[in-house]
Protein 1
Amino acid sequence: MARVDELVSVSINEAGFPVEFNWRGGGYRVLNRPVRWFTRREWWSEASRVPKGVGAGVLEVEMWLLVASEGREKRHYELAHCAIGDKNQWRLHRVY
Amino acid sequence: MSGFTHLHAASAYSAHYGVTRPELMAEAAASLGMTSLAITDRDGLYGSVKHIGACLALGISPIVGVSLEVVDDEFEHLARVVVLARGHDSGIGWSTLCSVVSAAHGYDVSNVDDRGKKLARNKSERIAIRRGDLARIIAESLGACTVLLGNNSDVGRSVLGASRDEALKLLQPWLDLFAIPNTLAIEVATLLTEPNTEGSTLQASRMLQLADFAGVSAVLTNQVRYLTPDDAVTADVLDAARFLEPLGFFQVQPNAQAWLKPPRLMHALAHEVCGDPERARQLIRDTQLLADRLRLDPPSDCGWGKPKTPEKSTLGIDGDPFQVLQQKAQAAISHRYPSASEATLREVNHRLNQELITIGQLGFATYFLTVADVAQMIRDMKIRIAARGSGAGSLVNYLLGISGVDPIEHELLFERFLSTERSSLPDIDIDVESARRHDIYRNIFRRYGSSRVTLLSMQSTYRGRGAVRDSGLALGLDEDEIDQLAKNVWRLSAGSFRNAVGQKPELAELRDALESDRKMNLLVDITERLNRLPRHISMHPCGVILGDSSLLKLTSIEQSGMGLPMSQFDKDDMDPMGMLKLDVLGVRMQSAMAYAVREIARVRGEELDLDAIDRADPETFKNIRTTNTLGIFQIESPGQRELTGKHQPTEFNDLTIQISLFRPGPMKGNMIAPYLDGRHKFAQPDYMHKDLEPILRETFGVVVFHEHVLRILNVMTGCTLAKADELRRSLEDPRVKPEIEKFFRTKCTERGYSKQVIDRVWQVLEGFSSFGFCKAHGAAFALPTYQSAWLKTHYPVEFMAGLFTHDPGMYPRRLLLAEARRLGVRILPIDVNLSSDEYLVERHGEELAVRLAITDVTGISQAEIGRILAERPFSDIGDFYSRAKPSRKTFDTLGQIGALDGLKLGDFGPQHTRGDIMAMVRKLNSAKKRKPSEQEAPTLDFDFGDLPRGNPEPSNAEKVEAELRLLGLDYTEHVLEQYRPMLDEMGVVRSNELANLRSKSDVLVAGVRVATQTPPMRSGKRVVFLSLDDGYGCSDATFFEDAQARCSHILFNTKLLLVAGKTRRTGVRGVSLMAENAWDLRELWQQWSAARPKESEMLAS
């Protein structure tokens, strides 16, 4: 396993599932039904404001574990999807 | 299959857990197209009545359950489950749910004794129910509740780690105990947490597989605790408040998924959990099937809206309650109207018949008899009682002795209290001596039986200070920092906190912090989130619920702070549930007056019936008019004092009017000035129409009372008074107001009133809705006002003793001391041989004086007081030391405040100083061990060596300093006397001289802060009123915004103040100060005395 933590651009389908992502110039196709979960963020030590309506993005992060391939080799990738306000970011967390 | 029902949803009434008010939750469910919704609050049915009411209004089916901890026989944790009541079963499901919840709080209500016996409570401190008890209660109901067993259980935890066999083994006892069909279901729920952890889809899938394997029904929930994902931040803060730990120091919720997800998303979750679409559809179908079983029919299940009163046998009545009521009322006429004229008696009889007809039609005879029975019980206990509220408008209440104000003499209307246009039980509120309130409650339980009585609860909600405190705690802020902030949060709603920080001068520091400090910004944000959320449940200060023997089948109960059981419903739940709430409010003034009457009897041998005194005593009104109203019920506040100066009341009805006028509504509506102008003949009263003159004569044309509105509508439209009260109530609802306006205009036009008059009167009525006051309520309050003024006028010593003992007012005790000094009432210091735990009146020849009570000594324990009272008299200090056994600290304190001055120092010589006493006290205190008590060694053998001699007597300043520090009472002299040299040099005016100054004089006043108020103002701007006591009376200073800004740092906290301002005459005896600036008197003193070393020696401290 390798920790990466880099911004990636992701295409999603209607259900919000990632189907493809771009990392370091390469295009990766998602090959399985990804596993999704939500994990915590510690807003009290990270956020600058938490007014009503700020959204759940200050508190949780959507995580995806999926199998993808650039062409030949299939590997497991972990993506994190953060949405706070109008900020909408995908990061590649880990490669297995 | 479409649709979905959430069967597991906590509301904000799950204190420190749920986030969303039930009404909002139900509204959201309805708008998401759901046809039913459950509420399952933690540990109680706290939000259920509001939930049911909201669902009924929205046309969806309410479902009610509870989330409870289940333990095994050794009280070890097994699970937190949801228990849901079956519906449409004539209330068996509902009453079973109530029994389950009460059992979790330690009350077994299944076999409650009908009369006399106390409801037993098991001693466990934990709110939890044993699995066996839960199964037994549900089995006894033949399966009227369903238990949902989910992730948070022994079974739920085992599916994550252990083998399926292990999980099945844990499931088996649940299956055995809940064998009746539909009493147990597996709760499948995923919060989409990390795979393999609690709340994950994997756990949900395994629970489903287990259910299928064991052949148990499974249902899907989302363990809802908030309405939207955004609310999860609030839930974090509530968790911190529940765990009493800052965020980061405990296991937080896994994510923000526990929200009220719409059916579409719940269906998607079902698919995610099941994998198989058919199984997913089945899961949703089973959830809906269970929901259908649980839909409540509130009238038949919960007794919704049906009034319930004790059975007549409980009241000792046989025969028709209505006839009994009629006989009792008629029999009392000769007692209440002993010397009435023919005409009055005719009026009384006519009014009585009218009231009885209404009561009969509504079927409320038992209700009135119940309240009368309680009132009689209280009188039999020799406790003072008075009515309050609209109930004083009823002649029946007056005749039955529930109220002490004659509604005919004071023109109070029955229709304001009760009419056939409404069918809810009316409120009859009674005031009693506060010190005896708990005795009354216990007696009510004894008299009617534990199955028919329970206390009422109330939910306190987060307001400014509490919200700041808990937010600060959640963020882990320093406690001093939180304290400092909370102290400056002065009566502002947490909901507009950020706004307030921008405006209020005392929050300026926080405003600066917001520029740069991230934590402070978070603090402000989460404080606003907490605003108005329920915080904790406690005993309502006065409510008792009286029902028939089915009461505990309709409400769940838990233990109250005083030990008696209380309902989990609050006062707003009473009307919908058809429950009879009796308000028995403890009023300290009633205790103070009762105490004064007892002291009068003890010291003078005079028996006084306060309820029978002349209500037109000129001396009493003369005394009130001086504005020295401190200690008089309702009219002692600075604002009322000022109004008294302008108003100059001369009769009982004036007090009723004054009490009613001094309220936010009339003040905002500018009703006081025209009334006073009319009264003092500065302006011709304007009655709008000659027909209204008889109605409005008493208030010079100003519409003050609800009763005025009723009469105006009655005269001008010809409708009945009952109908008029309905119209008055509807005026408050903007949606129906146009209808009422139309009715009013049409009827008045028909009856020949001109358009001009109609326009004017309508304008007044329309504006009135938020201002008015019920005259019956004002009159009921005016009675203790008058009685206390009468006592203060004729028995000032006994009255002051009563005030000291029961402390009924808004002012600190040391201000009472200043008032006693002003009245010439002698105050005697604490003396261990003479003081008791009450303020006793002592006779010294012709003069009466008040002896301070020993309870005021700071830090003295009940045990020490008990020993002192039991062991006295004491002959000398050594004797006191060995028999009263005071702690070192208490002994020292008693010495310093002079409580030992009356004791001899030793066997010889009565002449000694306070200094000698203190030397002796310290000598005894420094001994390692107390000498053995008298049995082993007689006092004579005491040998303390040489007795101290020649120590100096402390100065007055030193004595006052010790008194304030250790007693909070400056009884040697007023605390301000120490500063007199400086004050005189500065030309500071004494408060009793203010009335002699010309208006707009520039003055300085000084004093101790006795009250700070920020009353509502017409302009909406904040005005701060400060009242200062300087030993000569009170001066009142008004701070507008400019002045507030100049002295914001001392405005709310500093005790001793000097204020500069201009005098403003407000009436014959009224003067107040328009403040320009204020200073801390102690700081000024330091500066002043630094320049004059000699004078400063006066203040040795």
Protein 2
Amino acid sequence: MKRRFTLPAAVIMLLCSISLFAQDRTITGKVIADDGSILPGVSITVRGTTRGATTDSEGSYKIAVPSGSQLVFSFIGFTNQEVTVGTQNVIDVRLMPDATQLQEVVVTALGISRDKKALNYSVQEIKGDKITAARDPNVANALAGKIAGVQVLGQSAAKFGTPNIRIRGVNSLTGGDPLYVVDGTPTDISQVNMDDVESLSVLKGPSATALYGNRASGGVVVITTKKAKSGEAKLDINHSTTLDMIGLLPKFQNEYGGGYSQDWETFSFNPAIHPADWKAFEGQKLLDYSADESWGPKIDGSPHRSAFSWQQGPEFGQLTPYSAQPNNVRDFFNKPISNNTNIAFSKGGENFQSRVSYTHIITNGIIPNSKQAKDFISAKNSITLLKNLTANLNINYTSTKGTNVPADGYGNQTIGSFNQWFQRQLKIEDLKNYKNPDGTFRSWNIGGPLDSRPKYWDSPYTQMYENTNSRSDTRLFGDFGLTYQFTKYLKGMVVARRDQQQYKSDAIIAYGTLNAGGLGAYSNYLQNQRENNYEGLLSFDKTFGELSVVANAGGNIRYNLVETFGQATSGGLTSPGFYNIAASKDRPAISNNRFERRVNSLYGNVSLGYKDIVFLEASLRNDWSSTLPVANNSYLYPSLSGGVILTELLPRNPILSYAKVRAGYAQVGTDVGPYQIFQTYTTGNAFGSNATQYLPTLLPNADLKPGLSSSYEAGIDMKFMNNRFGVEFTWYQNDNKNQIIPLPVDPTSGYRNAIINAGLIQTKGLELHIFANPVKSERGFNWDFDINLDRNRSKVIKLADGLTNYQLGGPTWRTLTVNAREGEDWGLLVGKKIRTLDGKRVVDANGFYIVDDQKSLGSVLPTFKGGFLNSFTYRNLSLRVNTDFIVGGRFFSTTRMFNAYAGLAAETAGLNELGNPKRDPVSAGGGVLLDAVTEDGKPNTTRVETQELYEDKFFALNDQWTYDQTYIKLREVALGYNLPKSLLSRVKVKSANISFIVRNPLLIYSAVGGGLDISESETFWTEGGQLPPVRSFGLNLRLSL
Amino acid sequence: MKKYILNTFIVAALLSAATSCGDNFGTMNISPNSPSNPNTASILTGALRNVGAAVTGIQPGLYVQHFGDVTYIEESRYKTVNFDYNGFYAGPLMNLQFIIQQNTDAATKSNAAATGSNANQIATARILKAYFFQFLTDRWGDIAYSEALKAAGDFNPKFDKQQDIYTDLFKEWKEAAAQFDGGKTVQGDILLGGNIARWKKFANSLRAIAALRLSKVDPAKGKAEFAAAVADGLLASNADNVKYGYLSEANNEHPLYNNYITTNRKDFAVASTFVDYLNKVSDPRLSAIADKNINGAYRGVPYGVFPPTWKAQDVSLAAATMRQQNSPVNVLTYAQVLFAQAEAAQLGWISGNAKTLYEAAIKASMEQWGVYTADGFDKYIAQPDVAFTSAKAIEQIATQRWIALFYQNSEAWAEWRRTGFPVLKPAEKPLNGGTEIPRRMAYPTTAPTLNKTNYDAIVTSQGADDQYTRVWWDKK
């Protein structure tokens, strides 16, 4: 039914009919939207006739109708409303937005809005409201689970990181970030202000991205920002305050404290080395303070000397009870309050639209003394002159300032220590006092009573308060463009776009702390980069009878420049406390680099639609890239797609409301980074006054060809029961030919990598999007949900002559690597594997697993992944609950390995199957019995020492710490309440909404376990010292004035 | 009219955008960040910076029980099985190969000669290249050699037999030493300052020691090569010692200074095996090699015992005097040359008195460690363990060489494997799946993953890729 009232049909009807009827009565009125804004262009028809009218720029209309007839008000994106004409002469109407229909018009390549049914490829769009329910400031987090085929490579909010996404999994050997395009300007994902986002389209395959060419091989995220509407004057305020806290920690044991041995050490006075008054300490219990593990004495509350009792201050010489501190790690983390405020003004008249917006986000980290402040300022302006000439100016300014932003990574001084290398009995209050009055630093991890220099770790507070860092990222992007409407059907556009960034960072290692030999260090880094795009586009859009034609032709010049400048002191600082390059003891390390490239392009496309039944589209693009050898720097690639709307050919029926089948073929060419063609030499650290130079270990290639990926895509879209249920299914295959990769080669050849055109890498996938509105009650209760599922498999079909393995990462922890191998799934983990016999693990005569090296541990690619999004509304209340999940795929956890190695994990303590403490010697009934069989298949009966098992045998035993990635994560919950209009109208507020939001509420299930959330992993295959997830509770207030 | 002008303007703008496509971009793709022209002197310095690393890589020093682990009792129990040689191939070896090529090719040789005569640069690079290759083959056995370093010419080099590699090394050192000419001194030589006489002695001494490696597997060839090397002139005093000097700067600091002072890790201390033996023979070198522990005693770290019951402060670290930030390490010493000659004399390969040479070697070693006194020396060599006995000569020479080679890790391990002396007890509970002291390093994972066919072939011919397959010269 809905099809009948889509805009073009209504307009055509209207144009034909307007003057043909006798005027019975004249009705006037005004049409406004749910939020009070004026709606120009609403079509009003008289049911059963072809009569109609449209609202003007003020939202007013006038129509002549017979009495008793029914008026139908329809507008794209809103639910139709019918009003029976009674005796009244004025009928004002408020239209409610229609969530289902909102998805009908989508923004495609080059910012061209298209009716979704005319597209022959999979595009999923989501509107701002659906993305921002939980006010996650990051686009990628906000996208998690919401679009089939999109995987979020999350980051812990503890480091304010900008997560990234992968579209359709691994499209290439090296993976690839998608291109983010904001109102036509390519920029960085971190520059997207969620409060400005009107809608976001994810263009997944080459059919959709063909016009973007070169950089679109990882897909494109097209973001359209909000703009003022004609006749509207609006002030929007959106504010949220959140309380953050640590989301997850490993399960720690609290039975044993620091050390490598359960035996107590006692103080033994030696007059030759100890001060005389230390004689009183004779016989006192000591721990091994130099140990950063917890295989020490059983925690028994007995008086002992802590590491701090040997350092300056009142604790010196004190005995303290040796007691469990189950919450010591949790207590380190703050529960900070953060704020996110946006204010936006918009006003539109007949010939101009203007919107200015300001967002200020203060995020205080859960790690003490860390914070980030981010400001977004944007202005979007459009002025129409001379009736046909429109000038657009969009300016976006972003400033991000980070203070002491912590890092993931194995050796990081906070969670890297707590989860991997720590003493369980430490009191966090003791660590807080990290500095002595004389300026020297205190640590829990010292050499011994006479040696208070930190051994492996400073106090985590030293790290956060003394080893400080700062970074500032200032970015300006936008465009200036002119559009000229030559005729009703032809328009031309020229636009100049720029995205420029200045990034600055510096870091201090405080004099006297552990690193840099205790001599302190200072470094800074500056990066300037910019991208200019100059483009021109001619667009033609006309319907000839039953044939609609949309055609575009254009060209683009892209120029990129990156300049970097980095300096670091070397060998310490000459003047303690003076953090400046001038204080470098040795010759400081200084580097400056400049990278430049240009790509020129010409492109065009044609879309044909016949009777709204058959759609065909073709495109062609040619790029010229400065980074390829001159002989091979031009490359041309086409796309072709078609689709048929089956329901147009079938009789109307109440079940199947819409069905379309579609198929497409496209190619995309890719180039390479600058300077990979010619041999140059690397300058290394000097040896005294002798300069050094090296051959690079990456072999350049003067015969490089552009990479070419061919993709095939087919799908079916169906809607049922008057569009209340729907399903979109897509199958695709990408054949990546000649992909340019730094192929690892056997280094005995003299090079570690060679830039080559790889043979053929194939990616196949399935995507399924199900949406439904199962409950829509008359009493106002509504339930919508979306399910997204996808499966993606990449395979190396052919690499290069004589080469069959592409090592993607590693080796780490001795021999673990991740590989793309000919004939195998992408991302194959290879390493040490526990031998099995009929599915049971096998042990040797000593009761330890038998291990084989260089064995497959499975692919990192998930079996499938997806999301489940729910939206419930009841009158003024709404509830959004978003879940995402991954099933299958392997993953190696360094944190889990060392959590156990260092005796911190709960699994390393407690009782064994005999009811004895695991950590007691095997001879006393302790130890662990591995669930395994001996080589002859008999059940294992040999228990092994627990410490030896975890420290010795399980260390670097990759298999033991490789898990399924499978997880289900409740990512966000938002409960909103729209304040009643009756209340608002009195205070001149158009709309107001108050929401309670929770981000990261619950990791429902995780196969990795161990207190890790691998949806926030550093890399796709492993993590180490990963920062903990952050759980946020917040209140959000949205006001429209 | 107005409209027409505007239309023209817009179309012109679009056209001008379009027509500028397809140019050749000039020099935009030439990197401004790294030089396009090499400087072979700087490349030589870069290659030489790896000599220190070759000498001081710690694992062999643990295998021969010069050192023990302090905290993580792993490498002394042979935890790492696969070792990475890739940094040497895609590093000094490739760079030295490049120096040879730059000084050989007609197109580049005259430019290259700016930093030393072509012949001198080639000779220096060949000696060093052979030095690194010997280092590699002694550790891994059969390695890529004849087909290595060919870049895109061969991404899958085959593994050559160690026997063939040794044959070529003798030739390389011999030819290279003869290749020096009277031309311009080589620049960038941070090892021997471009001193041709010293390079020749270094090359000849390397040949002699390499010849002695063949004492069990091919004594006839060993004898001939040894005699030829002696005739060409070996190191003749401690002043001739080849040392790699570290500097008082963070980028070029002594590895033990880095481990003990810069990072404060103190991962390795002098092993109990070593300290106990030196104590037993009252060796004056102990004070130059080890520090006392916190209680003022020489206490070696118990070797390979897990779990540890001591801390760094409780054991003897390597002596502060030998691991200053700018302390040198020994690459090849006069003492080594004398021990080699003592052994050769004992084997009857050369004339000369084994006892005299043996005692001279001990004296040279004590002088080298700065602890020689005439009285002390006389007493030392008179005690039963040390006093030369012809029947036990090989063991005595090997044992004294084991002391003299402290912190020449790779060389000490090679000599221990060849002679079997001193008799060492393996670590308790080794972690590499074996029970004995390693006799070889397994190949890096890149060999099976990136060069599988050749890897499989060499495993078939050489034996299992583990730490117990003996290299060719390591004959029982």
Protein 3
Amino acid sequence: MSSSHCEPGTSTQITLAGKRRFALIGNPNSGKSTLFNALSGLSVKTGNYPGVTVAKHLGQTRVGDSTVILEDLPGTYSLDAISPDEQVVVDVLSGVDEAPDGIIIVLDSTTLQRSLGFLARVLRHNIPAILVLTFTDDLQRRGGHIDASALSRALGIRVIPATSGERQGVNKIKATLAEFGSWESPVIAPPADAAQLTAWTESVLSTASYQPPEPDRRTAKIDAVLLHPVWGTLVFFIVMFAFFQTIFAVAAPMQEQIEVFFAWLGAKADAAITIGWLGAFVSEALLGGVGGVLVFLPQIALLFVMIAILEGSGYMARAAFLMDRVMAKAGLEGRAFVSLLSSVACAIPGIMATRSLPSAKDRLATMMAAPLITCSARLPVYVLLIGLLVDPDERFGPFNVRGLILFGMYLLGAVSAMLVAAIATRLSRRSGALLPFYMEIPPYQVPKLQAVVSAVWASAGAFVRKVTSIIMVTTIVLWLLLNFPQRSLAEMDAAGVDTSSETAMSAYVLDNSYAASVGKAVEPVFAPLGFDWRINIGIVSSLAAREVFVATLGQVAAAENPDEPLTALQDMKVLNGPDKGDPLFSPSVIAALLMFFAFALQCMSTVGVLRRETGSWRWPAIAFGYMFVVAWTMAFLAASLVRLVT
Amino acid sequence: MSATVTSIAIHPERVASNSSIIRWVIPAGTLPVGLPIGFPSPLAQFFTDRVLTAGLVEDSAVWLWIHPDESWSTQGPAVREALVEALAAPDHWVIEPCDDAVLRHVAQDVLAGPVGDVIRSHGGDAALSSVNGNVVEVEFSGACSHCPAISFTLHNRLEKEIRARHPHLERVVSA
């Protein structure tokens, strides 16, 4: 669940012609995708299956003298074709598109009793196959046992045991792929009848001396507390709370370093560039705007470190389990929680994760709710606004007030997403029973450093790419809009501007720019919230990506006071109206902005994904519309409330 | 899912030396060991129709020979169903005890299987030379001839493996 999902996959070209194709198939969490990545290295290409919106992952690897194509099919527990993911797997197996030459079945060796039936159904398609058994180290550690060669004889196909993150297993698989021509196939296909299948599974496992792993004793002890209805829930909130405190406490010093660096760079640029407009462009648009967003890199990276640790340690699955009961109140099942949880990184992977939901109504309800979860793009906006509102050292008891408010914002996002899901499921009048909810509860373990590092690397990379592409482009366009049309000295003289003051001149240009016209055009909408055109232009531009709001304010501030943009923001005054001369970023305006960003669907990528996943513009239009109305209303209420108490 | 009736746990395995045989692994002790000459219906019908030609029962498997004109991939599912039914009525089988014949097949199968693979991977070879009164005589050749580990292989691997499948085995000796 990295925000790299937000961008279409890019990488090397993969040609299919004349190459042998192998499909990886298995249950979710069976280590299938890890294996796929280990096999195909960096040559992964992401696309879509025709007609449906299930992601298609292709890779390639060299085996022997030739290159083979690998396809990572979506992880599924069954072949019943009730969800789009399962449909894709069934289609591939039955050769609707073009059946692969061979199949690599990946099963978690610790849960074989359950997954062997799945294997049987795959084998019935009569496509040459091999079985890769994952987590055999885990099986052994927990007192389980399997005789892989006996299993191979019983199944009639080759079996390769593998442990997570071990080179040897990968090499063995490659060697087996090279021997494709001589793969054995089952002498008789496994039975289809349920009772006979159960008997077959039992017979095969007993021949392979299969001993299922004992429940991890350490895990059982920890779970007695962490899955406890009372203590577990309490711990859950403490963990979540610590999560957000850490993001502030640890990231702040790193952030300062980046700010210092950009200030230094700005000074250098100013001194070096003698062409007036170019200097302004570099220091305002590039360093003030883009740099202003890049400052949040430590916080984004830290967010993903924490998520990777929660996932790697096994706590994330418990959190989903604890939340299953809460989800049921909203009419959803536990699987929807995984989607909502992914949305903490970015709503896009969250929306894509709804593909595992078998019910179309559940999918829609979850999709309508997911964009409300506080995503990593909201983080810079919140951090900036909270930073304007509260002093860094302010404390409430032992807690940092900034962290407290941020935690509150996350809580607000989660609660409102649940409410929306509940309303959406009620409106669509659910019919039919809840489908079975499977979820792996893995044993606890120390998170693997490599997994944490690569998760952070990928998400930090995606953030930097986003900053240097869409955010940079929007920022440049904005700079042009903010600085044009240029005014001549004569014009300014005529307008009564003090032409001896640099600041007064740039303020005049700003006030009469194209951007100002746009901002002023939407003023009637936002005036009740206390926003002036400078905030409005930030809101309009943040449609491209929420972080652009920060970049825009950074530019506006840099134009007024290039040396201290943050102070400039704090010192910004209301330009006209009854409150003229008061600080623009008053507590009520900040509260309104926080509410607005919490609820509004200010993200065109999300709108695009909603369009793709639902197949029409209807649902993205509904989502954008309802979220805007809620955002405006909540912002208005918040502003009024704050005005009342202050 | 259909109503789950507990079915006798079986699965088919190849016999390395002969593609017309399937070794159906069954729960140990379901049937007495020996050569079956009478089968309960509907399994009997397959013999009447000459689809199946012979059978053999070891401690935890039933061997069935298919007619050379038939194929396991097409007849297999029907035979499986008939066999499951037949296994539910062990009293209706007529089985002649014939330890030596069963032991010969088991020993041959083991020698062609993983234990044999280990021997062959070390440059040796082992062939069954005789079976007499639950004593198996194996002839080693190639690298095995002067191998100091031969006694270990004989007792700890070969003998153990054969005994697991044929508890009446007395010992394995080198010819």
